[in-house]
Specification:
The protein has three domains: 57 residues, no CATH class; 260 residues, Fido-like domain (Fic-like fold), CATH 1.10.3290; 66 residues, Arc Repressor Mutant, subunit A (Orthogonal Bundle), CATH 1.10.10.10. 55% of the residues lie in helices and 7% in strands. It has 17 helices and six strands.
């Protein structure tokens, strides 16, 4: 993507003095600030009588008057809590911390299956964002059936999955350099050219974030000599509860700062996204374990990269990144809620079929097994769960296919694989 042009230094702008007293310009500045228009995009908007530079000066003065600042070593970032953030933050609070998602209708076994499924989705999407070439279908089968990874891409996904397990079991820990390095060691296990990089901060400045096509540098990480003191400062900031910051906002700041420091030779994106999960779950957003935010980000990856660059080209104003990530959390909640409602409808449909005598109890069990599965199953897998012969299950499956409740999805070798057909549709 094309890098946004850097916002001009305010000290180099000579605004028209009259703009400070012009009501039309004030209204434009307030309106564009609520939308949080970047300097590079302002050229496509009406800038009023005094022009783009003068209006930008007014907009920035307003932003600087209301912004909050965070200083980590030599890094100074700012952000504004826009009025339009309040509603989605409240909705996130209600959905993720007070249990208003329809997950409460599921038993502990089903909740665990949903959690594992979401962990799979997150580990796969986060790895694919970093270059893992394995398909989602193959990756899920590897994780579900505990198959050893065959290549680096599959290893990345397995490592990410184990990192999610690590996060869930370490919610009582404070953030520390040791914790971050331990997480990185899990995320990158057996995937780096030099195993000595696993779980260790950089010892040189040989990396940069560049466009793979043009070679343009998007981000120069901090010098390696500054990593230790900056990570120490970041840990103090995250662990300090004296100055309240909304946990979702603070988690996003943690995500941004780790990515900005870029403390590792590789795996920085995976670590920073994992730390966002860890922090928000630690702060009471327990339902976060059921979401795959990286899946939402992967589907809007251009926006993810753009959000970083908008921040860096506007004096490390992280409002752009906060805005994007709030939208991705909201999208993840929407995706998961729709998925849950679909599953509830499926369960109701199966119950109605059983009550109507349309299928036997064993056939009901087959539908429930397929409905709850993360992937297609063979008659042999279904038979192993039911205690009857594969031929008996095959007869049941064929009957269910005829009724439109099951469909054949694929073949794995000589085995036919089957999935649940939603609401009896072939």
């Amino acid at each position: 993507m094309k890098r946004p042009k850097n916002a001009p230094d305010l000290s180099q702008i000579k605004p028209s003095p009259e703009i400070l007293f012009d009501p039309n310009s004030m209204d434009l500045a307030r309106n564009y600030n609520e939308k949080y228009i970047h300097w590079d995009k302002l050229q496509y908007y009406d800038c009023g009588h005094y022009g783009r530079e003068s209006l930008w000066y007014l907009m920035k003065i307003m932003r600087l008057n209301t912004c909050k600042r965070v200083n980590i070593g030599d890094l100074s970032i700012s952000y504004n809590l826009l009025d339009r953030f309040q509603k989605p933050l409240h909705q996130i609070d209600m959905a993720l911390s007070t249990g208003l998602l329809p997950i409460n209708g599921f038993d502990d076994k089903r909740k665990m299956m949903l959690s594992i499924s979401s962990m799979m989705e997150e580990s796969i999407a986060s790895s694919q964002m970093e270059g893992a070439a394995t398909t989602t279908k193959v990756a899920k089968r590897m994780l579900r059936d505990k198959i050893d990874p065959k290549n680096r891409s599959e290893r990345m996904i397995l490592d990410n999955y184990r990192a999610m397990e690590f996060i869930r079991s370490n919610l009582d820990r404070a953030l520390s350099p040791e914790f971050i390095r331990e997480l990185h060691g899990i995320v990158t296990h057996d995937t780096l050219e030099d195993p000595g990089y696993e779980g260790n901060f950089r010892k040189d400045n040989s990396i940069a974030v560049r466009d793979i096509l043009t070679g343009e540098t998007y981000h120069e990480p901090v010098s390696y000599e500054l990593i230790d003191p900056m990570i120490d400062g970041l840990c103090r900031f995250v662990n300090d509860e004296s100055d309240y910051i909304h946990p979702i906002i603070k988690g996003i700041l943690l995500h941004f700062i780790v990515a900005y420091i870029h403390p590792f030779m590789d795996g920085n994106g995976r670590v920073s996204r994992s730390l966002f999960y860890w922090y928000t779950m630690r702060e009471g957003y327990s339902v976060m374990e059921y979401l795959s935010i990286s899946k939402a980000i992967k589907e809007h990856k251009g926006g993810y990269e753009e959000a970083y660059q908008l921040c860096e080209t506007d004096g490390n104003d992280v409002t752009y990144f906060i805005d994007y990530n709030i939208r991705m959390v909201m999208l993840s909640i929407e995706i998961f809620t729709n998925y849950l409602r679909e599953k509830i409808d499926e369960r109701r449909h199966v119950r109605d079929l059983t009550d109507a005598g349309d299928i036997t109890q064993r056939q009901t069990d087959i539908l429930v097994s397929l409905m709850n599965s993360d992937g297609p199953q063979s008659v042999y897998e279904l038979a192993s769960k039911s205690g009857v012969s594969p031929q008996t299950i095959r007869n049941d499956v064929n009957l269910l296919i005829g009724k439109g409740y099951v469909k054949e999805s694929s073949k794995e070798g000589h085995k036919h694989m089957y999935t649940y057909a939603v609401k009896g549709k072939k």
